[in-house]
Amino acid sequence: MSLTQRQKKLLALIIEHFIDTGEPVGSKFLTTVFGSSISSATIRNEMANLTKIGFIDQPHTSAGRIPSGAGYRYYVEYLMPKISLTAADKYAIKAKLDLEQCEPSLFLKNACLLLSEITNCIAVASTPISELNVCSRIELVTLGTSSAMIIIKTDSGVVKSKVCRIDGEFDIEIIQLFYNLTKNYFTDKTPNSIPAINLQNLITALGDKLLIMLPLLTSLDELINECKIPQIITTGHENIFHHRALTPYSHDILNLLSNQDAVLKILSNAQDGISVQIGQDNGIYELLHAGIVTSRYNLSENISGTLAIIGPMGMDYSKYIPYIKYVTDTVTQTLKTNL
């Protein structure tokens, strides 16, 4: 859609004023901004044109105009000012993140907490997952005579652990048998390539140790299944109640965010760099009145994850996009270092 320079300026003013105030924008305010350079009649005509093409709406006959989803989309793509973070902004971000934290889920939770605080939106992240997602390391840490913790680390840096108990005592023979099994059947293999544990295939290897090893193998199988999908982290749920535009839909949105499959679908729309979905762009009924900014981080050719913020369609995109971009860059650098 091609707009005249005057229409572009009007649309940008309407959107930026609405983002600042949350109130419909009338021709009186715009006349004040333009002064004598444009008549009030011309402004009203241009507002009518912008309404006709679907970039602004008039909620009530006597009310001013508010931006539509299509209007926000045009603004983000063509009119939004490009803002860069200051050195002080960047320093503050790194100061609040624990750059020494090497466990992806904990570091990403800190990143989400920071983003939800800065943007007053809901922040979401997925832990890194590899197309191969190899189980690179499996450890057994004894906690007592009959209890131990199994720890799995994947090539994407994700760590999973589970405590289990056996009907007997952990001795050198049991521990060595565990490591022999993991080396032969699990280590350096992708979770999807590891078949479900089949006792018939293991009877020969386990012999009379089958029953005592069963809890370990069951726990290991559960951990491997957890490694097949990324962990979803969300923070700032309470921020939804700070936005009048989203409050009526808060129950539906919060229910949606409690569904991991639904959140994964949202994050799957992310592309390299920054992606913005506004209103109907989302393709999700519960988010028809929301805006989503996603940013993918890539740790290697095959390992990636996503950060996102979810807020009202009228969020301050020009202010928030530089923050999510810089936080994403920091996540990428930090997790790459700790792979």
By CATH, the topology of the largest domain is Beta-Lactamase
* Cα-based radius of gyration, to the nearest Å: 26 Å
State the fourth-level CATH superfamily of the largest domain. Answer: GAF domain
Shape: elongated
- Supply the number of structural domains: 3
Describe the biggest sheet? 5 strands, antiparallel
Counting copies of identical and different chains, the oligomeric state is: single chain
Q: Which structural category fits the helices and strands?
A: alpha+beta
What level of helicity do the residues show?
40-55%
What spatial order of strands do you see in the largest sheet? 7-3-10-9-8
Number of helices: 12
The separation of the N and C termini measures 46 Å
Strand content: 15-25%
**Helix-strand string:** HHHEEHHHEEEEHHHEHHEEEH
**CATH architectural category of the largest domain:** 2-Layer Sandwich
Architecture blueprint of SSEs:
Layout: H1 5-21, H2 27-34, H3 40-52, E1 56-57, E2 66-67, H4 69-79, H5 87-96, H6 104-119, E3 122-130, E4 135-142, E5 147-154, E6 159-165, H7 172-185, H8 199-206, H9 210-226, E7 232-235, H10 250-257, H11 260-267, E8 273-278, E9 290-298, E10 303-312, H12 317-337
Antiparallel strand pairs: 1-2, 3-7, 3-10, 4-5, 5-6, 8-9, 9-10
